[in-house]
Amino acid sequence: MKSKIIFDKFIYLLIIANVLAMILESHVSIRNVYGFYFNFFETVSIYIFSFEYLYRIRLAYLDNQLKGVSKYVFSTFGLIDLISILPFFLNQFVKVDGRFLRILRLFRLTRIFKLGRDSSSLKLFVQALRGVKNELKFTLFLSSLAILFSASAIYYLEHEAQPEKFSSITESIWWATVSLATVGYGDVYPITPGGKIFASFISLIGIGIVAIPTGIISASFVEEIYTLRREKK
Length: 233
Fold this sequence. Notes:
The protein is mostly helical. It is about 80% helix and about 0% strand. The protein is built from 8 helices and no strands. Helix 1 runs antiparallel to helix 2, helix 2 packs across helix 3 and helix 6 packs across helix 7. It is extended. It starts with a helix and ends with a helix.
C-alpha cells in the first residue's frame, strides 16, 4: 500500500514536469538549445506512463478480472491514460502528416487530468455530470438546432449583401456559433437591416442557451454536495 502511494506521488510529479517541459519547449530559443533533452525526457516519460497504464490494468484484473479491466479501460481516467500515450506510439508505427502530429502532441496536456485521479471534488463533479447527462444531451441538441436555424436564417438574410462572408449555410455556422455563445468576435457580422434585427434577437436567445446547461450543472453539483454532507452526518 505504501509503495502504491509512493508510485502515485512519483507519477504526479512526472505529470507536472511534463506540463512544464511542454510549456518550455514552445519557446524556440529554449527548444533549439535543449531540444534533444526534451525529446529524451518525453520518450522516458511515455514508457513510464505506458508501464503505469499496464500496471493499472493488472490491478483492475486482480480486483475483478475482465470486468475490472473493462471498467478501468473505458472509465474517464482510463481513457485519459490511453490518450496521453497513444500519439507517441501512433507516430512510431504510422506515418502521419507533420501538422497532424503537432496537433496530436497537444494530447500530452491530458496528463494533467491524471492529477485528479484521487480528488474527491473531481469525483463529485463527475458524479454530478452523470446525474444530469440526459438533460445535458437535450440542451446540446437544442443548441445544435439553434445554431443550424441561425446559420440558415442569416445566410438567406446576408448572402446577397455579403456573398464572400456568408457564402453558404456551412460558412454561416461560425457566425451563428459565436453569436449564440455571446462571444461575438466581430470578424463576421450582418450589415442589412433584417440581418441586424435577427442578430439582436439571436444574441438575446444565446444568453438563455448558455445559461441553461450552466444552471443544470450548478444545481446538480450543489445537490451532490448537500447529499454528501447529509450522509456524513
